[in-house]
Specification:
Helix content: under 10%
Distance between the termini: 19 Å
CATH architecture of the largest domain: 3 Solenoid
Largest sheet: 8 strands, parallel, barrel
Strand content: over 45%
Number of helices: 0
Number of strands: 45
Amino acid sequence: MSFCPRFGGAFLSTLSVLTFVFLSTSRAPAASVGGTLDDDTTWSGTIVVYATVIVPAGVKLTVEPGTVVHLTNGVSIAAQAGGIIEIAGTAANPVSLLPVNATANWGSISASGANSLIIIRHAELARGAVNMGSQATALIEDSYVHDIGSAIVGNSARMVTMRRIHVKNYSETIFNSGTIILAEDSLFESLTAPSSDALEIQGGPPGSIIRRCTLRHASGNNSDLLDFNGTSGVLVEDCLLYDTSDKGMSFGASGAGGSPDHGIIVRNCLIYNTRGPGIAIKDGTTCGLYNLTIHGCPDGFRLYQKFNTPVDGGHITNSYNNILWGNGNSIYLTNDSSVVASYSNFERTNWPGTGNLEVDPLFQNVAQNDFRLATNSPLRRAGLDGTDMGAHFPVGAPMALSHPRIESLTCAGTEVHIGFWVDSEKAYSLVASDTPDGEWTKITDLSPTSLPRLATVTNSITGASARFYRLVTPPLP
């Protein structure tokens, strides 16, 4: 609920947001480009890339706001060691990178070599990828990457930062051989190829963070939403994961005889409706798991040995405030696996540990995937230090949150402007009242569109001393 005074200041969200609206307009004449750049180069208007463009050491390619780049089948834009590619779209004038042949893939925006750099802001990449090779660095923000197999790849890259991006209709984002990533406020969805992973880290050193992300809809056989192999020191927090053909999160060794994951921390996440375990931990991997809610999975936690070597199962070295309810098994252990748990609620298992329970959590509305605790839930204040068990909501990317949220609210005279994300899979109602406990009146309904969008609704508060707003989904009757 948000409050706006009749006169005076405004509540402003500090969250940066993006509306995904990409318009391709015809501009003439189009410049045709290809080959190695000799000097710093700026593109604007309409560009046709007929052969791979190379950005060598000491050269920068800048793509200005509003530019439309058409790329021929298989061609790329590639920065070598010391080269820089900056795609500098804005919210009002994004850059579009589109295939010349609407049904064929172009190559990638890529960088490889020491001090090579990619910066992508406010861009649409249709049927093309982003690839970082050895020692490359990349920043991708407020962009939409779609209809491509390996959408974002880091192979021995230094650092890949992804903020407020949307990746859709793809087979994988994968980061390996020492690449560190930061992924936040992003939506990864709709994988159809078998053995796909929405986000995978292989052989990652300590330091990667995945937070406030939504990962959903992997229909191809054997597809995980998060998959780590031989990786250490990763933090996963405030994420929403659901609807996949295999595991919500998978942690294990890089292969037979390979190094296991270790030092993984997962906290404040919601996982539901997976066809494999909510969380799988294998082959000597160690994890700490906190404030998780897991529902509708064959196993909540599944710990086991996958490869012949190392001869070891999985190990949850510390965990608390977790709710595993409505799964086939809460905990499934084999191969000398181990779980240390306290102040948690596990269905159909009397798991040892201080404060552990086995009671109906009284979720607010399981049919609508609303796993908030009811006001009379026995798990309220039953967690460690008197906190609530389970995830604390909302979780996930702002553009696809577990629960609706008003992102911005400003007052201008008698008008109030309310901003919020509309997920492509939910309908919303904005309601208002002159008192926090009064009668709520519907202002408007908003229906989903093909992509998440940031909506702004204007409401008059003439005659009122104050107004309170709520955002609800599904719409009120």
